[in-house]
Automatic annotation (TrEMBL), chain A:
Family as reported in the entry's similarity comment: Belongs to the binding-protein-dependent transport system permease family. HisMQ subfamily.
Biological classification of the source: Bacteria, Pseudomonadati, Pseudomonadota, Alphaproteobacteria, Rhodobacterales
Compartments it resides in: Cell inner membrane; Cell membrane
GO cellular component: ATP-binding cassette (ABC) transporter complex
One of the record's GO molecular function terms: transmembrane transporter activity
CDD domains given in the database record: TM_PBP2 (cd06261)
InterPro entries listed in its UniProt record: AA_ABC_transptr_permease_3TM, ArtM/GltK/GlnP/TcyL/YhdX-like, MetI-like, MetI-like_sf
Protein name, as recorded: L-glutamine ABC transporter membrane protein/L-glutamate ABC transporter membrane protein/L-aspartate ABC transporter membrane protein/L-asparagine ABC transporter membrane protein
Transport among keywords: yes
Source organism per UniProt: Palleronia salina
Chief location of this protein within or outside the cell: membrane
Keywords: Amino-acid transport, Cell membrane, Membrane, Transmembrane, Transmembrane helix, Transport
Membrane topology annotation: Multi-pass membrane protein
Domain ABC transmembrane type-1: 94-398
Automatic annotation (TrEMBL), chain B:
Compartment(s) of residence: Cell inner membrane; Cell membrane
GO CC annotations on file: ATP-binding cassette (ABC) transporter complex
Keyword line: Cell membrane, Membrane, Transmembrane, Transmembrane helix, Transport
PROSITE patterns linked to this entry: ABC_TM1
Membrane topology designation: Multi-pass membrane protein
Domain ABC transmembrane type-1: 225-420
Any single biological process term in GO: amino acid transport
Protein name: L-glutamine ABC transporter membrane protein/L-glutamate ABC transporter membrane protein/L-aspartate ABC transporter membrane protein/L-asparagine ABC transporter membrane protein
Stored SUPFAM superfamilies: MetI-like
Amino acid sequence: MASISDPQSQQDSFRLSMLLNDTRYRGLTFQFIALILIIFVMAYLGMNLVSNLATAGLTFSYDFLGDPAGYDINQALISYTSQSTHLRAAFVGVINTLLVALFGCITATIIGVTAGVLRLSKNWLVAKLMAVYVEAFRNVPVLIWILIIGTIVTISGANPRAFLTRGGSVEPESEMLFGAFAFTNRGFYSPAVNFGPGWIIVLLALIAGIVGAFLWRRHMRKTLYASGKLLPGWPTWIILIAPVVIAQLVLGSLSLSMPDVESNNFNIQGGTVIGKPFIALWLALSVYTGAFIAENVRAGIMAVSKGQTEAAAALGLRPRRVMNLVILPQALRVIIPPLISQYLNLTKNSSLAIAVGYADITATLGGITLNQTGKALECVLLLMLFYLVISLAISAIMNVYNASVALKER
Amino acid sequence: MSDTHAESVAYVRETFVGEQPPPAQETGALIWLRKNLFSNWFYSILTLLALYVIYVLLSGFLPWLLGGVWEASSIRECREIAGEGAAGGCFAVLSERWNQLLFGFSYPSEAYWRPTLALVLLAVAAAPVLFPKVPRALLIVTLIYPFAAYYLIWGGTILIAVMALLGVIVGYIVYSRLVDRGFALGFFAGVAAAIIVWQIGGFITAAAPNVLALTEIQSRDMGGFMLNLILGVVCVSLSLPIGIVLALGRQSSLPIIKWICVVFIEFIRGVPLITLLFVANVVLAYFLPPGTNFDLILRVIIMITMFASAYIAEVIRGGLAALPRGQYEGAESLGLDYAQSMRLIILPQALKISIPGIVNVAVGLFKDTTLVSIISMFDLVGMIRGPILASQDWNGVYWELYGFAAFLFFIVCYGISQYSQWLERQLATDHR
C-alpha cells in the first residue's frame, strides 16, 4: 500500500481517501473502527443479557446480599452464624482467602528459599534431592497436589479422645506436644491468645518497637555515610523487642489459654482449633509455590556473576559483608519481581480451596451463595472484582518496588 | 618454531604431550564421594540427612509400588489378594478403569481408536513445528491435522472437515494474491473468501451428510485424560494468534487500541482461571443470543483460550521489547509499512525469543485444564473424584488414582519443559 505521508507534495485540501491512505489519518480511522466495533459488541452482549434476564424473570440486583445466608461455615474468624447475611458470609470468605494466602506466602518463601539455595549446594545428593522436589511439584497440576495433600491431612491425626485424661484418672494414649499442641482428626489444637484489657497498648508498643528499629537502622546508615563510622547492629533487636515485652510484663493483657484435656470426657476443650481444610490448603499451596520460588531464587543467585564475589573479597570485605552488601542487593533485584508474581499466583490458586472444603471467597460467594440464590451474574462479578482488586494492589506494590530498585542510568 | 631461536635453544618440543590422566589421589569413587558429599562436617550432616529422607521415601514407596495388586474387581478383592497388613497398592483400579481414565465414561468404546489415532497424528503433525531437522514436507500434515483431528474425534461426515480445509486454502490463496496491494485488503478478502466457501460447504454437507461418515460423538461425552489433552492443545493453538494480536495492540501507538488490549490483558490476568470457568459454566449463556445452546466444552474452550491468550500476549510483549530498537528503525527506513515490518522483520525475531516463555505458558495451561473438574466436567481428575472414587468398588483407593494422574501429567509436562530447555540451548547458539 503506497502511503502518502509527505505533506509538501500534496495540496493541503483534505480528501476522503486520505483517511485510508495517509499515515497521518489512518491511525485515527482504525481507532474509530475499533471503537465502533467494541461499542457494537458490548451493546450486542448487553442487549442479549437484558433479554435473557427478562425471559428468565430475573433482575440484576445485589439485594440478596442482605438476606440470611442459611448455611454454616466451618472456619470463621469473625462471628458468623447461619442466620448471618450473605454479605457477611462473603466477608468470612474474604478473610479466609487472605489468611491462607498470607500464611501460604510466608511458608512458601521459607521453603522456596531453602530449596533454591540447597539446589545450588556443592553437595551432590542434596542438590539432586531438591531438583527432584522442584520438578515433581512444578510438573504436576496444583489441583492434584491439593487433593493428595488434602487426603493425607484428612486421614491422618488421632481421635481427640486419645489425648484425654478424664480428670487425671486415665493415662492418655498420646501426649500433647509441650502440653499445648495436638494434631487430631478434628484439626490442630493449639493455645488460644486472649486479649485482656490494655491489649491496645501492647499493640501500640509493638508498632513503636518496629518504628524505632527502622529509625535506628536509618540512623546507622546516616552515620556510616556521614562519618564512615559503623554503629553496632544489635540495638535494633532490643529496640524492636523491648517495648512490647515491657508493656506485656507490666499490663499482662495477653494471656494464653491452653487446650484442656482434663475437664471433658469426649473432646478437648478450649484452645484454638485450626481446621483440617485450612491446614491441607496451606500446606499444598506452600509446597507447590515453594517449588516455583526455589527456581526464582536459584536464577537470582546465578544471575550475580562470580566476579562480583571475587571483587568484593579483593576489596577486603568479610564473607558476611560480601553477601549483605554485594550479592544480596543484586540477587534480590532479580528475585523479587517474579517472587511477587508467585505470591499473586498463590493467592489466585487459593481459589481451589473448594476442592478440600475450605471456605474461602470462591467457596462461599462463588459456591454456596451462588447456588442458593441463583444470582450467578452478580456473584461471579463480585468474585472477579475481589481478585482483581488484590491483583492490582499487588502489581502496584511491585511497580513501586521495581522503580525503587531499577538501575539508575544516567 | 621460528628459525631465529633454532641455535640458542637446546631443545624445543615440536609435538603436544598427550593428555595425562589425573593423579591417582584425585580420582576414584571415594574421592568423588569426599568432594561431593563429605567435604566438611556441615555437608556430611546434610548428606546423612538426605540419605535418611531418601530411605524414608523409598521404604514407603517401593513396597507400595512393587507389591501392588494389578488384577482385581474391587478394593475388597484387592485386600483379600494382598493379604492382611500388606503394603502393596491396589493398582487393579487402573487396569479395570483404564478406558474411563483415558476417555471418560460415556465415549463409545468401539470408537476409542479414533482419539488414539488423533494423538498419534498429533505427534507427526507437531514434529516439523518442534524440530527443525524434520523434513519440511511434513508441514502438510500439520496443516491438515486440525481438520483431521476434528473429523476423528467428533465424527460426522468427512465433508465438514474437507470443506473447512477448502475454505482455509481458498482464503489463503486470495490473501496471497492480494497481500502485495496491502495487508488489510488481502486479509479481509481472504476471510471473506473463506466464509463464502464455508457457506457453500454448509449446503453441500447438509445435502450429503453420510459421505464417509464416522459415528457422531457429542462433546459432552468426552472425558478423562483425552479431555485434558483436547482442551490443552485446542486452547494453546487458538490462543497463539490472539496473543500475538493482543501483544501488538498493547505495543501500538494508537491509544484506543492500546487501551482496549491493556484492559483485556490485565483483567484476565488479574482473576483466577476458576472464576472464568464459573463464567463459562453459569454466566456466559446470559450474554449469548436467546435460544442459542452452546455446549459446555465449547464455552470452556472460549474462556480458557481468552485466559491463555492474555498470558501469551505478555510473553510476546516481552519478546517485542527485547528486540533492539534498530530493528524497528531499520524496517521503517526500508520503507515498509506497519503490517509489512511486523510480518517480515519484527515478529519472526520476537516470536523466536518468546518460544521458551510460550512453552512455559502452554505447560501451565495444560496443568490448569484439570480445573474443569471443579465445574463438574469429567476430565482425568473429574473422573477420579467423581465416578471412580464414588463407586462402591473403588471407594478409598486414593493414592493409586491420584498417583497415576500426577504421573501422567508429570510425563507430559516434564517432557515439554525438557524440550523447552533444549530449544533454549539451540536458540542460544546464534547471536542476538
